[in-house]
Amino acid sequence: VDIIVLLPKGHCTKIQELQMTTVLKENVHVFGVEGNSDELDEPIKTVFADVAFVKKHNLMSLNSINWSRVLVQMAHHFFAYFQCTPSLDTHPLPLVEVVVPTGAAGNLAAGYIAQKIGLPIRLVVAVNRNDIIHRTVQQGDFSLSEAVKSTLASAMDIQVPYNMERVFWLLSGCDSQVTGALMEQFERTQSVNLPKELHSKHSPVLPCPCLCSQVPGSCPGCWPDP
To answer: Which CATH number is 127's domain given?
Structure first.
C-alpha cells in the first residue's frame, strides 16, 4: 500500500512538518503543496468524485471526506462518554458536555450522529478566528470570510468545513434535496443563510462562549484571542 501525504507548506508547525517529512518508509510519499488546507482539499475531492479513476487505482482517503473516518470518531464519543460516566445503571443516563475543537467539522458531525442515535451528550463547538462554524451555529450564517487567518492551531485554520453538509443533512431530516440546494448555493456564492427551520434545530450544538486561537486548554475555558 502506497501512502501519499499532502503537506500544506507554511501552514504546519515545524514539529508537524518533521513528523511527516522524516518518515523513511519507501511506500510513504510526502509532497509539499502551495496553498492552505481548504485549497489542498479541492483536488482531493475532485479526484474522489471520479468513481472510475478511484476504482482503477484503488484509492482511499484517510481524512473525513471518507465516511469511515467519521464512524471511527463516533466511537471516540462513545468511549469518552463511558469514561466520564461512573455508572450506566442510572435512568435517565447523565448528560455529558463534550467540547469539540473543530476545523472541517468531522468530529462535530460524528458527535451529532452519536447524539442522534441516543448518546446523551451536549456538543460545544470550539473554533479559532476562522469562525464559520461559530457563525453558523450562532446566526445561521454559513459564509466565507475574506481570507483564512493563520493561528497556532493550524489544523483548525479552515474556512470550508465540508462535514457541515452532513450536519445540514441530519438537521433537515435527511432531506438530500434541501441539503443539495444549500451546498450548491454555497459553492456558487460562498454564502448561505440557513433557513429558520434548520437553524432552530441547532439547540443541541452550542458555540464555545469565546473564540480562541488555540485548542482549548480545559473545558469549558479557552485561551483568549491574541
So the answer is: 3.40.50.1100
Distance CA 141, CA 134 (A): 9
Domain that holds residue 211: 67-215
Helix 164-171 and helix 106-116: axis angle, to 10°? 20
Would you say residue 223 has pLDDT above 70? no
Neighbour tally for 176: CB within 10 Å: 9
pLDDT exceeds cutoff 60 at 219 = no
The DSSP symbol for 156 reads G
Same domain, 108 and 200: yes
> 84: which 3 cell numbers?
466520564
> If you count DSSP H runs as helices and E runs as strands, how many of each does the chain have, helices first?
9, 7
Which of 14-23, 88-97, 215-224 bottoms out in mean pLDDT, i.e. has the lowest? 215-224
Whether 222 maps to a domain, the answer reads no
Number of domains in the chain: 2
With CA atoms as reference, report the closest residue to 35 among 68, 70, 62, 11: 11
What is the mean pLDDT of the segment spanning 181-185? Answer: 94
In the numeric block, the cell 467539522 is attached to 105
Are residues 210 and 216 in contact, defined by beta-carbon separation less than 8 angstroms? Answer: no
Per the domain annotation, does 62 fall within a domain? no
R_g of the chain, CA atoms, integer Å: 18
User: In 3D, which of 222, 218, 200 has the Cα closest to residue 210?
Assistant: 222
Same domain, 14 and 82: no
